[in-house]
Design a protein that fits this description.
Blueprint lengths: L1 E2 H6 L3 H7 L6 H13 L2 H6 L1 H30 L5 E2 L5 H5 L1 H7 L4 E5 L3 E4 L2 H11 L5 H16 L5 H4 L4 H15 L16 H31 L5 H4 L1 H13 L1 H6 L10 H9 L4 H10 L4 H9 L2
Antiparallel strand pairs: 1-2, 3-4
């Protein structure tokens, strides 16, 4: 157990290490695994070494903040806290800082016409579930968020003080990567989970489009290197545009109300969201035009470049 009193009085340092790695509650383990799965985008964005350095720094500094918060609570409110929730919880809460600052907010739908549901709502709800699962979880959450903000803003040059050395990263790559890497599936997974035949056909067409785009990706990259580094997004989204035109031709009301060649107007807000994720303005504009201003589709294929 993550017993701070035994760590402080009896110098049981092994409790500090084990108590912050081993999760003793099933709910904490389940919510933490789901959140780590959703935060996997940061490893692709930062790189494995920088991502591991972020986790290490937040783990170390959150342990210090845990002790400070418990002592402040004892002297200010005369509340003595002996045991805190155990597990890899503080780095999980620390990852909410780059998630809030770096990932764009895209509205998906509305509930009761007032409450907006975005692509980040489920992650926040899962974090709220983890936050309310234990009485003293707020101490872990506050220390994790504080350490995440300090590292994200590089306060006191934290990114240069605590980091994973290159030789450790190389050793981890040689030893751990073969254990966790897997081959791509050779058999196509089951398609057609929709409730109707039309939805099943649409899902099958989406899967075929994705396979076609992924098969064209190496060839497009070679052409990009030869032509100066810009992707031809008109060739990247042929099926999506054809399907959009076919749907509008099949609907007579939309055909009457839609001009023959509708202009591709790109929202500057959507361009800014893609640029916040690290993409150039040219690629963001081309991807949004080619995907008919669908931010999710544009982001998906920009990440797969």
């Amino acid at each position: 157990m993550y017993n701070l009193q035994k760590i402080k009085q009896e110098f049981q340092i092994w409790r500090l290490i084990c108590g912050r790695f081993i999760c003793l509650d099933l709910t904490h383990a389940f919510c933490s695994c789901l959140l780590i799965y959703n935060f996997r985008i940061f490893e692709r964005r930062y790189g494995s070494r920088k991502f591991a350095s972020f986790l290490l720094c937040s783990w170390v500094f959150s342990a210090l903040f845990d002790t400070l918060l418990v002592e402040a609570l004892h002297y200010a409110c005369d509340v003595k806290v002996d045991v805190l929730p155990s597990g890899l919880l503080a780095p999980v809460f620390a990852l909410f800082v780059p998630f809030y600052c770096s990932i764009p907010r895209v509205q998906v739908t509305r509930v009761l016409g007032q409450f907006a549901i975005t692509n980040k709502s489920l992650v926040y709800l899962m974090g709220l579930q983890l936050f309310t699962s234990s009485f003293f979880m707020w101490i872990i959450a506050l220390s994790g968020l504080t350490s995440g903000m300090l590292y994200h803003n590089n306060v006191f040059k934290m990114q240069h003080v605590i980091f994973i050395p290159d030789w450790v990263a190389r050793c981890g790559s040689y030893t751990l990567e073969p254990l966790f890497s897997t081959d791509e599936p050779t058999l196509e997974s089951a398609v057609g989970m929709g409730a109707t035949l039309d939805i099943q056909r649409q899902q099958r067409m989406d899967r075929l489009d994705q396979q076609l785009l992924l098969s064209q990706l190496p060839h497009m990259r070679r052409n990009t290197q030869q032509q100066g580094g810009l992707l031809n997004w008109n060739r990247f989204f042929p099926s999506l545009r054809q399907r959009w035109n076919a749907n509008h031709q099949a609907d007579p009301r939309s055909a009457q109300n839609t001009p023959a060649n509708p202009p591709q107007e790109v929202s500057e807000e959507q361009v800014a969201r893609l640029m916040e994720m690290g993409f150039s303005r040219v690629d963001a504009l081309e991807a949004l035009r080619a995907s008919n201003n669908d931010v999710n589709v544009a982001t998906n294929f920009l990440l797969q470049r």
